[in-house]
């Protein structure tokens, strides 16, 4: 039978265990000494300057400014009511599927694609037709209404 260790008696085994324990304790002390863990509180504190940058030096108390609590905005600003100006726009029908009942118009002025439903048509349209239309805001963006073909 092969033995895992050279130790044959109890004293040799105890010496080996003691040596192993001391080596383990030594490695533990080395890790403690070299670790960044457990630094002082001053080493862990970071400050924010007036421009929002993180710095390691505390702010100068002489340059302190008082700010009223009412001036602090912690939410998004309210969306201002934009006037709904239904200007008559012109564009080109880039896609229209009669069986599905919808299509898209490319606006001449802005170049954006605007959804159009078959119920918003005043006259039948096909692809590449020049049309005039008005826009309304729908649940997924702008939609064209009062669509008619320009002769």
Main attributes of the structure:
single chain; 151 residues; alpha+beta; OB fold (Dihydrolipoamide Acetyltransferase, E2P); 5-stranded mixed barrel; two-stranded antiparallel sheet; 2 helices; 28% strand
- What's the CATH architecture of the domain at 89-149? Beta Barrel
CATH class of the domain at 89-149: Mainly Beta
The termini sit apart by: 104 Å
The CATH superfamily label of the domain at 89-149 reads Nucleic acid-binding proteins
Tell me the fraction of residues in β-strands, as a range: 25-35%
How do the strands and helices of this protein lay out in sequence?
Blueprint: H1 10-34, H2 41-44, E1 47-48, E2 54-55, E3 89-97, E4 102-107, E5 113-117, E6 130-138, E7 141-149
Parallel strand pairs: 5-7
Antiparallel strand pairs: 1-2, 3-4, 3-6, 4-5, 6-7
Can you walk through the features of this model?
This protein is of the alpha+beta class and 151 residues long. The chain has a domain at 89-149: Nucleic acid-binding proteins (OB fold (Dihydrolipoamide Acetyltransferase, E2P), Beta Barrel). It has 2 helices and 7 strands. The chain is elongated. The termini are far apart.
């Amino acid at each position: 039978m092969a033995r895992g260790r050279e130790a044959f008696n109890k004293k040799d085994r105890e010496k080996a265990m003691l040596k192993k324990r001391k080596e383990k304790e030594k490695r533990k002390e080395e890790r403690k000494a070299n670790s960044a863990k457990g630094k002082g509180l001053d080493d862990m504190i970071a400050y924010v300057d007036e421009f929002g940058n993180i710095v390691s030096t505390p702010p100068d108390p002489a340059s302190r400014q008082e700010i009223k609590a009412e001036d602090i905005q912690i939410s998004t600003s309210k969306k201002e009511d934009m006037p709904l100006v239904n200007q008559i726009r012109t564009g080109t029908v880039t896609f229209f599927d009669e069986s599905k009942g919808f299509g898209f118009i490319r606006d001449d002025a802005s170049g954006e694609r605007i959804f159009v439903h078959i119920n918003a048509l005043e006259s039948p349209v096909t692809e590449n037709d020049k049309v005039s239309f008005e826009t309304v805001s729908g649940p997924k963006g702008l939609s064209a209404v009062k669509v008619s073909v320009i002769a």
